[in-house]
Amino acid sequence: MSAPISPPHERPVSTVVETDVLIVGSGPAGASAALALSTYGVPTIVVTRYASLADTPRAHITNQRTMEVLRDLGVEQEVVAQATPQHLMGNTTFCTSLAGEELGRVRSWGNDPLAQAEHELASPTRMCDMPQHLMEPVLVNAAVARGARLRFETEYLSHTQDADGVTATVRDRLRGDTYEIRAKYLIGADGGRSKVAADAGLPMGGQMGVAGSINIVFEADLTRYTAHRPSTLYWVLAPGATVGGIGAGLVRCVRPWNEWLIVWGYDVGAGAPDLTTEYAESIVRKLVGDDDIPVTIKSSSAWTVNEMYAERYANGRVFCAGDAVHRHPPSNGLGSNTSIQDAYNLAWKLKLVLDGTAHPRLLDSYTAERAPVGRQIVTRANQSIRETAPVFEALDGLSPQTPEQLWANIAARKDATGAAEKQRTRLREAIAFKVYEFNAHGVDLNQRYASAAIVPDGTPDPGFTRDPELHHQPSSRPGARLPHAWITSGTRTLSTLDTVGRGRFTLLTGIGGEDWVRAAEAQDVEIATVVIGPGQQYEDPYGDWARLREIPDAGALLVRPDGFVAFRHASATPDAGELLGGALRRILGHT
């Protein structure tokens, strides 16, 4: 007989809310963590101290690896529908103002013909420009629809942890009261001044506040100056600009060709200027170079350029992701991409630990795999700032001088003299070198993980045959992302990446790999099986997979839920069950 139900006024009031995972922050890292965890069926609460999601564009470049993550999580098409497409992103322009002289361009973001081919060969997805104030609602709405619970105006105050979980104290900013949330794990995705990371004592390297910048969001119809050279970024050499020490102003397209964001520098030692509407409009006029176009200032804000990264991403049951553990300027467009990929790496591991499939030791691989990536992108983003200096050196624009002298230097490049010819050459080379910021395809896709969740196959690492920052090199080696190839299943054409993910392991093999299929089906862990070959469930009509897989038909690849190869064996073997079982025990932390 069931117990009687107490009237509402007699029920005890609990001051502790319980969940499996508590996420602090609803930005790209927190929102994507919530999306992945809710997709996997993990009870999740997201708290944010703010009253809404992002209301300014901020992060925007969305690279192929992130689009692959969003594809697996089922929101790729929603992003594509709202984003600026790749072909409108790529004429990064250097000029004296939008209405002024053009100094040169870089074909960017995969729009160089050769780079475009590499992008098409690398992934079933296309990079795009998806401003943060549009991206966050896509991620959060899908997460909430799948069961995540979201609380606005809820400020994280502190946490304590024990052997069984984490107790976080939060404050409801509307009511003013505090309460506790008890979770098995806590994810700190609370940005570049993360209180969760500080409370967890995560060790940091580098420094904050190395330079000052201002964002000015405005509306203006700049079609006449931009539509013929469509781009995400227009760099303006302007006296008085010090964007992160660069010496230029940046005009960034938010939505073609009417919504814009300007980045302008300030002396971080002296503090940010008074961000009045008049001040903001004066900067806009300077960089646009047309005083007659109607301009509407939407917002202005100051921020600092940082060069800091966490050496460890976790302490016990507390994990941090995104800007909480890697803080850097927006160069290369790596910020939100790395944040989303952090969350994707962590989410499947938490899911398998929470459902008892994996030992908590699996979670140690999060720091081992993502901290090197975080350090790399912090270094790359700041190096890209420094690599802009040669553009100004070519125009003698770094030495103290009057604006009139700078304009004279710029005009001198058009002279029919030997000195001017050398200047033109230096300028072309300096602008072309910015490919390391605007076409760093290898930085986007060449991650190679090394952790206990990866089983080496004993083969020597061949390294990279081309510059690993500029060029993606596919590999099926354990620790690499599964190579993309177009395959077919009946009348469907799909990517090899479409056969993996969805929160489970996948084993890929070919004709002769029957022992591997049986071994996969005999494991206690869910493993999808994919057999590729003539007459099989999947076929390789172009022969692309055969060229990329780096193993014979009867060999096997075990791919993790995040699309990274965890185990590779080159041939059929009667020991397939033992080998696969041993690999899984290692990956899942049971040995």
From TrEMBL:
Residues 18-381 form the FAD-binding domain. This is 2,4-dichlorophenol 6-monooxygenase. It holds the Pfam family FAD_binding_3. The keyword Zinc-finger does not apply. Residues 456-481 are annotated as: Disordered. PANTHER family: FAD-BINDING DOMAIN-CONTAINING PROTEIN-RELATED, TRK SYSTEM POTASSIUM UPTAKE PROTEIN. It comes from the Bacteria. Keywords: FAD, Flavoprotein.
